[in-house]
Amino acid sequence: MGVPGPGGPAAGRATRSRNEGKPVRGFLGLVLMAVMAASVAAAAAKRGARAPASAPRQAAAGLSSGTRDLVVRPVVQVLPMPEGTPAGNTAAYDWSAGRLRVTGRGRPSTKATSNAQRRWTAREAALIVATRNLGLALRGIPVSSEETLARYVERQGGKLEFHFQVRMGQVVKERALEEGDFEVTMEASFSAVESLGGVVGPDASGAAPAKASPRLRAEGWKPPAGLTPTGADGPFTGLVLVATDLKAEPVLRPLVLSEEGRALYGPGIAEGASARAQGLASYAYTLSDARALGRAGEKPLVVAASGVDARNAGCLFLSKGDAERVRAADKRNGFLKKAAVVVILDPDS
């Protein structure tokens, strides 16, 4: 299903009155046609305004809004927009909070005859563009280093239907710009993305998983401060993986394997509403930010990844000793099923 652009029916095309048989011009005609063109986007905005501040919205970030302010630098990935997209129309995914944010800009109708009409038609046009951008950006979120969400869903035999994309968006900010233009910012939580893709569960396509090819750290690498010492007592509340100096990347379907190739964590291991609401892992740039997210709890097990997959930079490896530590700690405390996992990346990843 397509979405009309700001130059479509919302531009204020005249309609005809059944009673008079004459064109109805002016504000009434603008209202009728703009409402028809923007109804889908406006409905999404209203849903966002009515949505309660419920647990899933906070769970998508893995923390309360007050705690989120402690994160110094969230991991935000700018998503590509189609060639020719006008300036000001942007999209980005916040891997720390698990939220997709887009902006859309609209221009006032050339048929508008007052400042109020120009502002109103520009806002409705911006809603349409922002809704379109939400759908475009959603498709490009990486499920792995080699696959986008759109491609992954297609492999599962599904399709990213536009009406589902519209329903997931919430208007979080809007502002008037110079020369009468208007800008609308929309957001969608990971729980909405998950409802489209089923990304936290096992691959349902039947395709055999690609064999991982680890690229291990160079000898002499010095681990950072803050790792959990060998033999430290639990109980542990979560897992923090230090993946710096590996060129690891944030993905919707992260994997953690032992160097022997045995799965420790990934799709199908995390269970329940926790994984569906906040994803399989959050990402941070520092250990202090990883702790501030709150997702891994007050006493996480902090270990350094020993390598990354040569093809999929979202697949991490642990040494034999650390793999055994994680497995034993999870057996006692069960944090992996709760998706209590944070990955620390290089700032330039």
Description:
This protein has 349 residues and is of the alpha+beta class. It folds into two domains: 9-197, no CATH class; 214-344, no CATH class. It contains ten helices and 18 strands. It has helices at 27-50, 55-59, 65-68, 115-139, 149-155, 162-167, 190-197, 272-278, 287-293, 320-333, and strands at 15-16, 23-24, 76-78, 91-94, 99-106, 142-144, 147-148, 170-176, 182-189, 214-216, 238-242, 255-258, 263-265, 282-284, 300-304, 307-309, 315-318, 341-344. The strands form five sheets. It has a five-stranded antiparallel sheet with strand order 3-4-5-9-8. A five-stranded mixed sheet has the order 10-16-17-12-13. Strands 14-18-11-15 form a four-stranded parallel sheet, with helices on both faces. It is elongated and about 75 Å long.
The number of helical segments is 10
Overall pLDDT confidence: 80
Gyration radius, rounded: 23 Å
Helix content percent band: 25-40%
Number of domains: 2
Shape estimate: elongated
Please give the largest β-sheet: 5 strands, antiparallel
Q: Which series of helices and strands comes N to C?
A: EEHHHEEEHEEHHEEHEEEEHEHEEEHE
The N- and C-terminal alpha carbons lie at a distance of 35 Å
Spatial arrangement of strands, main beta sheet: 3-4-5-9-8
* Helix and strand composition category: alpha+beta
Which features does this protein show?
single chain, 349 residues, alpha+beta, 2 domains, five-stranded antiparallel β-sheet, five-stranded mixed β-sheet, 10 helices
Topology:
Layout lengths: L14 E2 L6 E2 L2 H24 L4 H5 L5 H4 L7 E3 L12 E4 L4 E8 L8 H25 L2 E3 L2 E2 H7 L6 H6 L2 E7 L5 E8 H8 L16 E3 L21 E5 L12 E4 L4 E3 L6 H7 L3 E3 L2 H7 L6 E5 L2 E3 L5 E4 L1 H14 L7 E4 L5
Parallel strand pairs: 11-15, 11-18, 12-17, 14-18
Antiparallel strand pairs: 1-2, 3-4, 4-5, 5-9, 6-7, 8-9, 10-16, 12-13, 16-17
